[in-house]
Give the backbone structure.
Amino acid sequence: MLPTPQQVRDYIAQGLPCDHLDVQGDGQHFDALIVSASFEGKRLIARHQLVYAALGDRMKAEIHALSMRTLTPGEYAKAGA
């Protein structure tokens, strides 16, 4: 069974404290906007690794593609997203 955007959102939220989290997708391909203070001082690759760690083995088994925008709360506020 393919995961829903809400399930992917829940998976991320369970493993990573988020100030804002929006996930859209079709069951296989997902787009996520993730805002977390955990991203402070981290490069893009380290931010993505935090998200992948929150998803765990689901990235191999359930989720085939995840495009993500990872922002700190300050970056999110500046972007006005």
Remarks:
- Residues 37 and 74 are 9 Å apart (CA to CA).
- The chain has a mean pLDDT of 94.
